[in-house]
Design a protein that fits this description.
heterodimer; A: 307 residues; mainly alpha; MetI-like fold; B: 305 residues; 14 helices
Chain lengths: 307, 305
């Protein structure tokens, strides 16, 4: 790797240093992103999965809930007994596997995005408050983060889902209330870095309210690392939803969750390994794409932090 | 240093206390437990009887203090479902999870540390890149799916290992791989970065300049220093593994603490769930405390601040 040019997304002065080819921040971002293979692969695979989720009815003619008991567990097309009619086969109730996979992408993406919205709000609010005010506030918030880290996530999520009643909404809420720790840690350290910058002091000197300083001076300058955390936590949430659904306390049947598809296929996996292989590969691809995108974003938005 | 230890210990203790409140409230506030225990067909009189029998009619604070007082000497009451005390159940299942966690951590370190060293020595080379790719790829695979795939390959097709259970050491191989898998990237990255820092330092250059053999420099001088923070990370990872073993134990039908928790959750057996949450959280807090001490011993700047 060549040494990255010293520039900083955090300090506004950096934009002035890079004068020669004057480009808009968006153009610079796109140029850097285009040269980052991790970002490009992640973005491409993710775009394909998002498109599948959005245009599900156009991609498959089958309904993911339509059962056909006469056509149970038809293998995919690359098997001797497979056919193009159900090219990824059918499940134990004769439902088209490709249709369930495509509609299942909606569930994974919904869980990922909704969880990150909830946890991102909680974590960012706590982290910014700790980093900006410091002192006792910071100590109290650090304490809350420590308590959260000590709680075993899977166990708490399972117990809460069992008591409230497991459903899509429960999973989102429970995961959203649990996965904010990394947002808080990153928001805190990023806020501490900018809290003593001159432009914050200037904003304070001209009498801006704390709310205004936080929203229009601090937030834009700590957004980049938070977006990277958001991608990682999105992947984390998707994996956890799959695990919860697999254990029977996440998304409930007949919804086509990928984790649930693996759980339902488990009893048939000894004779038809594809039943768990297909949703497993889908899940791994989605998580891999999001992680690659996150890694790429980190390099693109903050090249000076590259190891 | 003593002051630092005492302060960290105080924090750890109060975090543990807060966790116990959270664990208690979580289960008591997320629904009417008496209704859950009595079942949907119970009459209001039966629900009331259950409420009194389990002490659920007392004020919440009293219930909590009763529970905490018991928990301090490992008396977590009786299980609702199993006809045993919670302490006996936990003691019976604990060794399986601990063994599993220890083997998983051992395997993870055995793979991650050498890989991190090799990656650092060949920085930018193909091994370094392959290791990084492996990290990103590996983290994307869901634990339970990895477990099922291992079963299909090594138990069903190759018939090398038993499918499930925890009777012999062979039963622990696949679950330990599935559980240890996720610790590898973090440990490897830390080893690699630690080694890169150390290898760039003056004393390594001196050691090489005075003609010491490369392996001696690498293992006696460099690795010894790079590995200390890894020990701290390993302690924390072990805590994560105990919490995460619930999924692995479910896949491989191992009767450890995680499996017990899963069963207890399904049966609304909340004394068991509470005890396991408190126990795992306490172990995690203890391990992070240990990690803090290791880091402070290593870096005096931490303990002064």
């Amino acid at each position: 790797m060549t040494a990255p040019a010293p520039s900083s997304a955090l300090a506004p002065a950096a934009a002035l240093e890079a004068v020669p080819p004057r480009r808009s921040p968006t153009a610079r971002f796109l140029r850097r992103a285009g040269r980052n293979p991790s970002f490009m692969i992640g973005a491409t695979v993710l775009a394909i999965i998002v498109a599948m989720a959005l245009f599900a009815p156009l991609i498959t003619a089958y309904d993911p809930y339509d059962q056909d008991i006469a056509r149970r567990l038809i293998p995919p097309v690359w098997h001797a007994k497979g056919s193009w009619e159900h090219w990824l086969g059918t499940d134990k109730l004769g439902r088209d596997y490709f249709a369930r996979l495509v509609y299942g992408a909606r569930i994974s993406l919904l869980i990922g995005i909704a969880t990150v919205v909830v946890s991102g709000l909680i974590g960012t609010a706590l982290g910014v408050a700790g980093g900006y005010f410091g002192g006792r506030v910071d100590m109290a918030i650090g304490y809350v983060v420590n308590v959260r880290l000590a709680l075993p996530v899977v166990l708490i999520a399972l117990a809460a889902a069992a008591l409230v009643g497991s459903s899509l909404e429960t999973v989102i809420l429970v995961l959203g209330l649990l996965l904010w720790d990394r947002f808080a840690v990153v928001a805190r350290s990023a806020t501490m870095q900018v809290a003593h910058a001159d432009y914050i002091a200037a904003a304070r000197a001209i009498g801006c309210s704390t709310r205004r300083i936080v929203l229009s001076e601090v937030m834009p300058n700590i957004l980049n690392p938070l977006i990277v955390v958001a991608t990682l936590e999105m992947a984390h949430a998707i994996l956890l939803e799959a695990a919860l659904s697999f254990l029977g306390l996440g998304v409930q049947p007949p919804l086509p969750s990928w984790g649930l598809m693996i759980a339902e296929g488990k009893q048939f996996m000894f004779f038809s390994a594809w039943v768990i292989a297909i949703p497993g590969v889908a899940l791994a691809s989605l998580v891999l794409a999001i992680n690659l995108l996150g890694d790429g974003l980190r390099d693109v938005t903050a090249p000076e932090n590259r190891s | 240093m003593l002051l630092y230890i005492l302060r960290r210990f105080g924090v750890a203790l109060s975090v543990a206390l807060t966790v116990s409140i959270v664990a208690f409230l979580l289960l008591h506030l997320s629904g009417d437990l008496a209704l859950a225990i009595a079942g949907p067909e119970a009459s209001p009189a039966q629900v009331e009887q259950v409420r009194i029998q389990y002490g659920l009619d007392k004020p919440l604070a009293v219930q909590y203090l009763d529970w905490l007082a018991g928990a301090l000497h490992f008396d977590f009451g009786r299980s609702f479902y199993f006809r045993e005390t919670v302490a006996a159940l936990v003691a019976e299942r604990m060794p399986v999870t601990m063994t599993l966690g220890a083997i998983a951590l051992g395997l993870a370190l055995l793979v991650a540390i050498p890989l991190g060293v090799v990656a650092a020595v060949n920085r930018g080379g193909w091994i370094d890149r392959a290791a990084l790719v492996f990290c990103v790829l590996g983290q994307a695979i869901p634990t339970f799916w990895l477990g099922l795939t291992l079963i299909l390959v090594f138990a069903v097709n190759l018939r090398w290992l038993p499918v499930s259970g925890n009777a012999t050491w062979a039963h622990f191989v696949m679950p330990a791989i599935a559980l240890g898998w996720y610790a590898v990237p973090a440990v490897m990255r830390l080893t690699r970065n630690g080694m890169l820092d150390v290898l760039a330092s003056d004393y390594i250059r001196t050691a090489r300049a005075k003609g010491l053999r490369w392996p001696t420099v690498l293992f006696k001088h460099a690795l010894r220093n790079a590995v200390v923070p890894v020990v701290a990370l390993a302690a924390v990872q072990f805590g994560f593994m105990l919490g995460g073993s619930i999924v692995v134990e479910a896949v491989f039908s191992m009767h450890g603490l995680g499996h017990l928790a899963w069963e207890a959750i399904g049966r609304k057996d909340f004394p068991v769930v509470q005890a396991i949450v408190l126990l795992l959280a306490s172990i995690y807090i203890g391990l992070t405390f240990l990690a803090d001490l290791i880091n402070a011993w290593l870096d005096p700047r931490i303990r002064v601040a």
